[in-house]
Write a structure and sequence with these properties.
Order of helices and strands: HHHHHEEHEE
Number of strands: 4
Largest sheet: 2 strands, antiparallel
Distance between the termini: 95 Å
Number of helices: 6
Shape: elongated
Structural class: alpha+beta
Strand content: 5-15%
Strand order of the largest sheet: 1-2
Helix content: 55-70%
Oligomer: single chain
Radius of gyration: 47 Å
């Protein structure tokens, strides 16, 4: 009887010890589990203004970066018609603008030179060169004259040169205006024009990004 009571007391003591051990380990396990979880941000107190969340910048596509044309097609045409290359510079087309400006500058320089040659030919068209002289007292007198080099044919040729360069200037203005007009129309399209050299001559390639 005494041995049965002592066994029963031992079992009860072991159960009590297990209960104490479980109670002691529960706070440590709860603390470890709480450390591994993400702590929620503190809630906004009543009456306080909520701070705006940070906005993460996302890279925009090339099509979205194009935006709206800074010039209307009509205004771009008028700008480049008055001054070749100016409309292209406003549309961020520096290469095309430099090309039209270079053609305009070259044409103006040649126009000025040809106009000076034409004025010279008109001023000296009646001149002639003496080829034979005869004494006349203390002086000599020309008895034969050869026509000068500034003939009517030369004046006509130089006038044609002047008209050709005037046509180049007019064509450059019109073509520059048309190019600026089309560029303003297609400003928001992802089109890229390029020239590729080849054996048979340059190839003009247009690439469109999708």
């Amino acid at each position: 009887m005494r041995r049965g009571l002592s066994l029963h007391a031992a079992v009860r003591s072991a159960a009590v010890l297990c209960a104490f051990a479980a109670a002691a380990s529960s706070p440590a396990m709860a603390q470890g589990r709480a450390d591994t979880t993400r702590v929620a941000p503190p809630s906004t107190p009543p009456g306080a203004q909520a701070q705006p969340a940070a906005v993460v910048a996302r890279p925009t596509s090339s099509v979205a970066q194009l935006g709206k044309s800074p010039l209307t097609p009509k205004r771009a045409f008028l700008y480049s018609l008055a001054l070749p290359g100016f409309g292209q510079s406003r549309l961020d087309r520096g290469s095309s603008g430099a090309l039209f400006a270079s053609v305009e500058l070259t044409a103006l320089v040649m126009l000025r030179r040809v106009n000076a040659d034409l004025r010279e030919a008109k001023a000296y068209r009646t001149d002639s060169l003496p080829t034979n002289f005869t004494p006349a007292g203390d002086t000599v007198r020309a008895v034969a004259r050869a026509p000068g080099k500034y003939t009517a044919d030369l004046i006509r040729t130089r006038r044609l040169h002047l008209e050709d360069w005037l046509a180049v200037v007019a064509f450059n203005h019109l073509f520059s205006g048309a190019d600026a007009f089309v560029a303003a129309q297609l400003f928001d399209m992802p089109v890229q024009l390029s020239a590729v050299p080849s054996v048979n001559g340059p190839w003009f390639v247009a690439s469109i990004r999708f």
